Amino acid sequence: MIRTLLFILISFFTTIGIAQNASEKETIDTMLVSWHKAAADADFDAYFGMMTNDAVFIGTDATENWQNTEFRSFSKPYFDKGKAWTFTTLERNIYLDTNEDTAWFDEHLKTQMGICRGSGVVKKENGVWKVKHYVLSIAIPNENVTKVTEMKKEWDRIQMEKMSKQ
To answer: Rounded distance, CA 28 to CA 92, Å?
Structure first.
């Protein structure tokens, strides 16, 4: 009898936890879709309003490690022209920590650069999910890596020298 009651209670609370987890993931997914849409709509305030004040954006170029303030300055002219960039989600995976106040995700995106991969960390601030860290990379098919590596060889050499001196 006690085992049965315990089993029922554990099952009940596990089910509630799974449902809440799914709900949080849906909320995060909706926020990320809105975040990408804000860029496509050139809505500067909405876009940066969905990022933490200490957010980091790592772009596709090896020199792009933008702190929030720098990224705002870099991005503003694009937003002011009426269109920043358009990223449409192809697929996304979201993972929640046990406290459900931090999550991380990876996604494939349709972009003007073809398929890109995004990954990041989102943090719940005052009950609202915000992007804290985002990394964008261009997806290169394995069969093209040799060509791409050769193409950027000289640029990489120069950048590696600069980075080694820092």
So the answer is: 11
